[in-house]
Amino acid sequence: MTAHGELATGEALRLSSILTSGLPALLGTGQAPTRYTVPVVFSRQVSVPEKTAIEGPETVRRLAGRGYPQVTLQVSDRRLLVGHTSLEELEEGLAHELTLLLADIGQAVSRERDERAAAAAVRQSAESDRAVDVQRAVDRIVFA
Question: 61-65, long-range: CB within 8 Å, 24+ apart, which pairs?
Fold first, then answer.
């Protein structure tokens, strides 16, 4: 993990499976709710920047724009809690939309990480140059 809570390996964050034990007990019966929370297991631990993006307002707008205005997303440890949805809605396209969303978030987080690393390298180079200049100035001084 990096200082920003990001995974150092760069493994893409994916959704792997639905946690069946977390589904409503009444599914498949006449009393089944029409909308409920579906817990989906992530492929790995979610970084802080990823969690912020997944739960952020841009994601809400994106889902609403794609026809899912009622759906909510909350990260809970290694699970994505997809609220106000159903297995049918996931099967009919929401699962694919979530896959695309995570891919886009992963690319954005990676790009931001790379930009921070490049900026840090520039700062480190400038600091090294400054240190060399100071040492050269010190070396020119002779106490004779």
Answer: 62/101, 63/97, 63/101
pLDDT in tens, 2-26: 444 444 446 899 999 999 999 999 9
More confident residue, 83 or 130: 83
Residues 49 and 6: their CA atoms lie apart, in Å, by: 7
Residue % of the chain over a pLDDT of 70: 93
Query: Is pLDDT of 50 > 70?
Result: yes
Helix or strand run (H / E) with residue 83: strand 79-85
Extract long-range pairs of 110-119: CB within 8 Å, 24+ residues apart.
Answer: 110/10, 112/49, 113/2, 113/4, 113/6, 113/49, 116/4
> CB count, 10 Å around CB of 47?
20
Read off the pTM.
Answer: 0.71
- Helices of type H across the chain: 48-54, 57-65, 87-89, 95-140
The letter for the amino acid at 64 is A
CA angle 80, 100, 119 (to 5 degrees): 90
Backbone angles phi, psi at 25, to 5 degrees: -65, -25
